[in-house]
Amino acid sequence: MIYIVMGVTGSGKTTVGQKLADRLRLPFYDADDYHPQQSIDKMRQGIPLNDSDRAPWLAQLASLISTWNASGGAVLACSALKEDYRKTLQVVPDISWIYLDGSRDTILKRLQARQAHFMPPAMLESQLEALEKPAYGIHVNVALSPEQIVRDVISKLNHMNPHSEFGVIGLGVMGKSLALNLASRGVRVAMFNRHVPGKEEGIAEQVIANNPSFTNIKGYDQLEEFVQSLEQPRKVLLMIYAGAIDAQLEALIPLLESGDVVIDGGNSYYKDTARRTALLSGKGLHFVGTGISGGEEGARKGPSIMPGGPRKGYEQIAKYLELIAARDSKGNPCTTYIGPEGAGHFVKMVHNGIEYAEMQALAEVYSLLRHMLGIAPTDIASIFKDWQKNGLGSYLLEITIDILQMKEGDDMLLDKILDQAEQKGTGGWSAAVALDYGVPYDTLSAAVMARALSAMKTERVKAAGLYQKMNPNVTIDESSFVNSLKQAYQVTRIINHEIGFSLMREVSVQLNWELNFSEIARIWTNGCIIRSELMEELVQIYQQDQHLLLAPPIVDRIRNARQGFASVVALGLQYGIPLPVLSAALNYFLGYSTADSAANLIQAQRDYFGAHTYQRKDKPAGEYFHTNWKD
Fold first, then answer.
1. Which residues form the signal peptide (predicted)?
2. What is the pTM of this model?
């Protein structure tokens, strides 16, 4: 869609156009920027432009409008005073004209207050004389504030089309937040939530009642009415738990028509997504399995979005995903086409595995500082603040700082929280997939197992009473230890990301998905839970290297940190502090950087008891040998 904000000089086209573009997440262009220098000089002298002056300028804008429309749309501020000018610009059907109307005195006051613009106030009279007010489009009074004008424009745009552009099924925390995110960008949204007497009643109506400023959202609790309210091809986002997807699809599919798109935005297992993609494809429908990360705040303000499935289906919804996604450091949306079949949900699954290990690593660092060194939580928060400012910045570190400073009365709220970590299953899925594909998954598997062990609270309490706490007679230099701990945490995070990306690399090769790791890292730089300074660095590294631990800047970093890393893990274990992720990361690194390992003994053992054969260093690759080991 192209939106042209028109009116005489001084009516506020640029200001309103920029604000509307920000709201709609579209690029903004000012037609004044395309005037040739001779026209600018002429206007500066107070000489009005004639039709001949404007002809090449309008022709250039018309060509640009076609380009912008093909690229997803734009907002253009342009005077477009005469009907003939507007006909020249109407090169695509989807143009919304927004006319800023106002009295001569109101506009003149604005012009007189404006500085450093080539159009002098005296030119207003000539523009008013040339103006042919359109009988169509949206007319807005310029006496309103720019913010009020934009709200009025959005409201009128929504009322021009009775059908909703986009549907959301499931109004839990994430579904509701995504629906409101879409609506806040000017999208006409239909919402549906199941009706369960006594449990879930009138949920959609409640969302509307709690958000009265949105005039572009409609609510339904009858599925057929919801589907009929959507313009075709329909775009329906499912935000329900994975176990309910098939039942929802069974009810939804008969109501859809060929070319419609269904998006699963929940945490579904990627093989289930591949199966559903094939099922809907056979019915002429597109199923786009989409990972969404960012929690409630991210869903409302801008998440990281990982869509996968048929490219044709993705292309129909891409502009909506880009509209609501977070933005990277260059202003680009944190979403991209991941790959076919279940690639989107697969990458989200790996994201969650990395997230599990990142959280567990921070918990272990906290445990060492508090339970081994005896540092108070508020002082640990101060240490983490220093790390946050000096190379280790991340969202998870940021929220951990807030948690360590939260008190309930005089007590730390953290100390009142039961130490049983729960999980939704995605971490376990990724560990199982790593086993299927033979990919080492040390830190991520360790994090999943640590959560499982934490659930054994009753047994842990009994065991703690049976075993005396370890307390080696070792003097610790706190400052030196904290510095080494920072290095250990830094390296653990690097290794954790390498492990996650290595699983993606292996699956991508075997399934011919052609995953772009630099792009995946880029869309994880904002909006998602694992966004960090390290992720920003990975965007560049994965443009050059496929193996993180072999990248020159990473090699130098680990070389300088490995001695301190090993000492931290050794000392922590001596003190009886469980360090599943830190020690798993260290073991992974040691195994990865060992040229000649003890695996030759394992091969000999396998050949001894099972005649599994082995290869030899002194023979050509691919030749296998067996030995009668008893002789």
1. none
2. 0.81
Q: What is the mean pLDDT of each run of 10 residues along the chain (631 residues)?
A: 88 91 90 87 78 90 93 90 92 89 78 59 76 91 90 80 90 94 91 86 90 87 93 95 92 96 96 97 97 93 96 95 94 96 97 96 97 95 96 96 95 93 82 94 94 94 89 88 96 97 96 97 96 96 90 93 95 94 97 94 95 95 94 73
* 166-341 carries CATH number 2.30.40.10: no
Query: Candidates 3.40.710.10, 3.30.450.20, 1.20.5.320, 2.60.40.1120; correct CATH number of 596-631?
Result: 1.20.5.320
Report residue 614 CA to chain centroid gap: 46
Which stretches of 292-424 are DSSP H helices?
Answer: 295-301, 311-324, 343-367, 377-389, 395-405
Catalytic residues: 348, 355
Secondary-structure class of domain 2-159 per CATH: alpha beta
Secondary structure (3-state) at 223:
helix
In which order are the strands placed within the sheet that holds 189-192?
Answer: 217-220, 189-192, 166-169, 235-238, 261-264, 286-293, 304-308
Give the residue extent of every domain in the chain: 2-159, 166-341, 349-592, 596-631
Token representation of residue 58: 């309008």
| DSSP class of 369 | I
